[in-house]
Amino acid sequence: MTADRLCFPEGFIWGTATSAYQIEGAWNEDGRGLSIWDTFCRQPGKIWQNQSGDIAADHYHRWKEDVGLMAELGLKAYRFSIAWPRVLPQGSGPVNVAGLDFYDRLVDALLEKGITPFPTLFHWDLPQALQDKGGWTKRETAERFAEYAGIVGKRLGDRVTYWITHNEPAVAALEGHYTGQHAPGIKNPLSAAWAYRHLMLSHGLAVQALRASAGRPIQVGITLNLSPVHPASDAPQDVKAARRYDGLLNRMFLDPVLRGTFPRDIEKIFGLLFKVNQEDLRTIATPIDFLGVNYYTRSVVRHDPNVPFIQASEIRPEGSEYSEMWEIYPPGIYELLTRIWTDYKPANILVTENGVPVPDVLEPDGRVHDVRRIAYLRDHLIQVHRAISEGVPVRGYFVWSLLDNFEWALGYRMRFGLVYVDYDTLARTVKDSGRWYARAIQENALPPNATI
Ligand code: FCB
């Protein structure tokens, strides 16, 4: 390694990530059932400019072109999600063969190009039919999820080695059931608590179902959204608030999955609200092969008596750099990865999402000069490299996202892609960041500076 080139370990998994509802479109084609996001987007005022994923990036029709783009970038891996309502339009019962076929073809096309598929089973698009029966607030939904996992595992397990059960259960539970900013738009702490328990339980059940159905050894993990939590000041009240917030954001997910325990301090704060029983904890702690980590920013927290239970709220620190969504804080990914390693020792860690929204413009020269994204990715990869060089077993890194896409409640306002999507024509253009990333992949090292 030369002084100005940071080399990554041999076999490092360079990838990008997407999710079904955010890119596929084709919401009512080939037998797909409705998801809670189809319903939520139709409620006026929930999504920026009342947009929806009806068309999104039209990946359902353009998947061949998209796999071609991935090959052009030299990706080693691609993380995508499977739409449960495409496979099981009613959430359970008869399988929609056309839906499964779509993912089957995608997997084959990826493998043909030497790109390792990393499917996620649940990236928030619950079948509406299950929501109508109570969704994640009901234990039965966890059981239905395990059945769905088994069906997909049986069909794709002969070729797919790496599997992710859930994407960010914290967001599905809290944004979906407490703040109501995401589908299904419920605003009830009790619903959020039940959703949390059943999402977690369903993870453990799905790990078992996948292993049982694949018919050969596979690698299974879960993706959590995690952040280092910093106190807003040295005042003991803020320090304590940060610890509580860390429990809610990080430990409440890491402890059950990796230790089979529930954090004591959180139990004290919430009483029995979120408490998971011993038997379910054992299921949730079914051993996994890797932990997926999504990192975007840190949390800076102060004591706030107005917030029920947790008495803590986030502030936006002054003097920091911000993207259109969050503070840009590259050292946070290093802090997070080393902390996970020190406290939990998972055998393998994958950064399953990291990226930044930029108000990209397609210039007259036909290019997108997203220098800010290149700087963001580079600064974060430097920190990932630092963690690896200190012995943290980070095996791969996935940029969010391959393509510009539907950013949930923020609609198409946020562009996260390495590839620009013109939403009028749906034409794709590789951004400068895509070219930069392709070079990093090719060299298995970070280019010496932010140029391409
Ligand atoms: C994550 C989600 C992903 C995307 C990014 C920006 O929380 O997993 O779908 O929206 O944020």
Fold and architecture overview:
With 452 residues, the chain is an alpha/beta fold. The chain is built from 15 helices and 15 strands. The protein has an 8-stranded parallel beta barrel with strand order 2-3-4-5-6-8-11-12, surrounded by 5 helices. Helix 8 (169-177) runs antiparallel to helix 9 and helix 14 (371-389) runs parallel beside helix 15. The radius of gyration is 21 Å and the shape is globular. The two termini are 20 Å apart. The mean pLDDT is 97. Bound molecules: beta-D-fucopyranose (FCB). Beta-D-fucopyranose (FCB) is lined by residues 19, 22, 167-168, 171, 225, 294, 353, 400, 407-408, 416.
Topology of helices and strands:
Layout: E1 6-7, E2 13-17, H1 20-23, H2 36-41, H3 59-73, E3 77-81, H4 84-87, H5 97-112, E4 116-122, H6 128-131, H7 139-156, E5 162-167, H8 169-177, H9 189-214, E6 219-225, E7 229-231, H10 236-259, H11 264-270, H12 278-284, E8 290-294, E9 299-303, E10 312-315, H13 331-344, E11 349-353, H14 371-389, E12 394-400, E13 419-421, E14 428-430, H15 432-443, E15 445-446
Parallel strand pairs: 2-3, 2-12, 3-4, 4-5, 5-6, 6-8, 7-9, 8-11, 11-12
Antiparallel strand pairs: 1-15, 9-10, 13-14
Helix pairs in contact: 3-5, 7-9, 8-9, 9-12, 13-14, 14-15
